[in-house]
């Protein structure tokens, strides 16, 4: 018995990304106030933009890794973190690591829970 393999339809090659690597504007800096959370859709991704108390803008994946709540739907900025509107989980604005679960026993917080972050740059031009 002989096993036939289908010929490869396309030569193997490194294809360029669908969108070139680079910076993409998502909203104007003046549109994002301190402690404000905004829904942002860019390049087919649902994201949230928010500004912490120190005035720095951040960009995260829109969904909480706990149960998938949309952080842009009544999420809020608390102590340098974005807080999930459903169960109050907080994620550090710098790296997306979970820093607070309201019902977790002290010292039992699993810091492996992380929201995907994207780099945000501000320009006043």
Give a summary of the structure in a few sentences.
The chain is an all-beta fold. Helix content is 0%, strand content 26%. The strands form 2 sheets. The protein has a 4-stranded antiparallel sheet with strand order 1-2-3-8, with no helix packed on it. The chain has a 4-stranded antiparallel sheet with strand order 4-5-6-7, with no helix packed on it.
β-sheet strand percentage: 25-35%
CATH topology of the domain at 32-118: Rieske Iron-sulfur Protein
Question: Topology as H/E string?
Answer: EEEEEEEE
- Tell me the span between the first and last alpha carbons: 69 Å
Q: Give the strand tally.
A: 8
Largest sheet, in brief, is: 4 strands, antiparallel
Q: Compute the gyration radius: what is it?
A: 20 Å
Q: Count of DSSP helices?
A: 0
The average pLDDT is 86
- Order of strands in the sheet with most strands: 1-2-3-8
Overall shape: it is: globular
Tell me the structural class.
Answer: mainly beta
CATH superfamily of the domain at 32-118: Rieske [2Fe-2S] iron-sulphur domain
Helical coverage, percent range: under 10%
* Secondary-structure arrangement, i.e. CATH architecture of the domain at 32-118: 3-layer Sandwich
- Unreliable parts: none
Tell me the name of the CATH class of the domain at 32-118: Mainly Beta
Protein name: Rieske domain-containing protein
Keywords: 2Fe-2S, Iron, Iron-sulfur, Membrane, Metal-binding, Oxidoreductase, Transmembrane, Transmembrane helix
GO molecular function: 2 iron, 2 sulfur cluster binding; metal ion binding; oxidoreductase activity
Subcellular location: Membrane
């Amino acid at each position: 018995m002989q096993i036939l393999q289908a010929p490869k339809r396309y030569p193997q090659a490194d294809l360029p990304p669908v969108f070139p690597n680079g910076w993409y504007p998502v909203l104007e800096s003046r549109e994002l106030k301190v402690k404000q959370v905004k829904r942002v859709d860019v390049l087919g991704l649902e994201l949230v933009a928010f500004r912490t108390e120190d005035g720095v803008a951040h960009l995260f994946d829109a969904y909480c890794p706990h149960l998938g709540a949309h952080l842009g739907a009544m999420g809020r900025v608390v102590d340098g973190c974005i807080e999930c509107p459903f169960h109050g989980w907080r994620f550090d604005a710098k790296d997306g690591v979970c820093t607070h679960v309201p019902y977790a026993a002290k010292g039992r917080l699993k810091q492996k829970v992380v929201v995907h972050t994207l780099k945000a740059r501000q320009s006043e031009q």
